[in-house]
Amino acid sequence: MTLMINSEISKQYLSEENAIEGFKKAVANNQIRLALQILVEIVDAFMEGFQVLMEESEEENASQKVVENQQQKINTSVDLESTKDEKEPVKPIAKKESKTAE
C-alpha cells in the first residue's frame, strides 16, 4: 500500500504527481529548495489528516459524554422511583400469650 499525496509543485517541476516520489527524486537530484517545497505540501497533507482525526475523536468523546449523562439521569430516576415504591417495613404483630389455668 502506497500513500498518494498530490503535489502541484512536484507535478510541475518533476512530472511526478505523488509528492512523496517527487520529494525522493528532488533529494536524489540534490534540489534541496524544491525538496523542501514538496515537503511542505506533504506536512500540510498530514496535518489535515491529523486535524480530521482529532475532530472525530472530540465528537466521539462529546457523544460518549452525552450518553453517559443520559444513563446517569436514567439511573437516578430509577433510584428515585424505587425509593418511592419502598414502604416502611411492617412490624409483626406480637401474639398475646393467653394464660391458661393449670
The Rg value, from CA coordinates, equals 37 Å
Low-confidence stretches: none
Oligomer: single chain
Which band does the percent of strand residues land in? under 5%
- Beta strand count: 0
Helix-strand category: mainly alpha
> Helix proportion of residues, in percent?
55-70%
Give the terminus-to-terminus CA distance: 103 Å
Shape assignment: rod-shaped
* Helix and strand pattern: HHH
Q: If you average the pLDDT, what whole number results? A: 80
The tally of helices reads 3
Question: What's this, in brief?
Answer:
By secondary structure, the protein is mainly alpha-helical. It contains three helices and no strands.
What report would you give on this structure?
By secondary structure, the chain is mostly helical. The chain has a domain at 8-77. Helices cover 70% and strands 0% of the residues. It is built from three helices and no strands. Helix 1 crosses helix 2 and helix 2 (19-28) packs antiparallel against helix 3. It starts with 7 loop residues before the first helix and ends in a 17-residue tail after the last helix. The model has no long low-confidence stretch (mean pLDDT 80).
Features:
3 helices, mainly alpha, rod-shaped, single chain, 102 residues
SSE diagram, text form:
Blueprint: H1 8-14, H2 19-28, H3 32-85
Helix pairs in contact: 1-2, 2-3
